[in-house]
Design brief:
five-stranded parallel sheet, alpha/beta, single chain, 162 residues
Length: 162
């Protein structure tokens, strides 16, 4: 039985998450989205890697690009300049043409037992910076966040990674 056969449904039980327009995705849901967009000519989802540049060079999710803000200086530069002046033209065009953004990195999120914790308190500093800047750039973007570290996704779905 394959989990990829069904179109993924993302459900949020937490009202706070709904108001923030952001949800956590499981590895299976991300895999289903990637499979869906690979089989269509109209890409509607942008995947951004907020993790390590070294790991991104070695392995990454298909179709993703790296937004390198792993150090304080880069995060400050992004926050000061904004996405429009931080991204290259190709990346900015991809951001503008997609309403759904998926972020992932190398961090492990706290368990869902912390249901009262806000999404922002569960993110790494790199992910939080990217999340904040995307929302500042365009508040209408829907942002999904992979709840597992990239290595776990890679372990289960190596064929969906480079």
């Amino acid at each position: 039985m394959l989990a990829l056969q069904q179109k993924p449904e993302i459900v949020s039980n937490d009202e706070t998450e709904k108001t923030l327009d952001s949800l956590f995705l499981t590895c299976a849901q991300l895999a289903a989205y990637i499979t869906t967009i690979t089989n269509t000519t109209d890409r509607t989802i942008l995947i951004i890697d907020c993790g390590s540049p070294l790991r991104h060079t070695e392995r990454r999710v298909q179709g993703s690009f790296l937004l390198n803000v792993n150090d304080k200086i880069s995060r400050k530069r992004l926050a000061t300049r904004g996405l429009k002046n931080f991204l290259d033209n190709n990346q900015l065009n991809r951001l503008n043409s997609n309403e759904i953004i998926i972020l992932y990195d190398d961090s492990i999120r706290p368990s869902s037992a912390c249901a009262n914790a806000s999404i922002q308190s569960q993110l790494s500093s790199s992910m939080k910076c990217v999340y904040d800047e995307i929302k500042r750039y365009d508040a209408n973007k829907t942002i999904y966040i992979l709840e597992s570290p990239f290595d776990e996704f890679y372990q289960h779905y190596p064929s969906l990674c480079y």
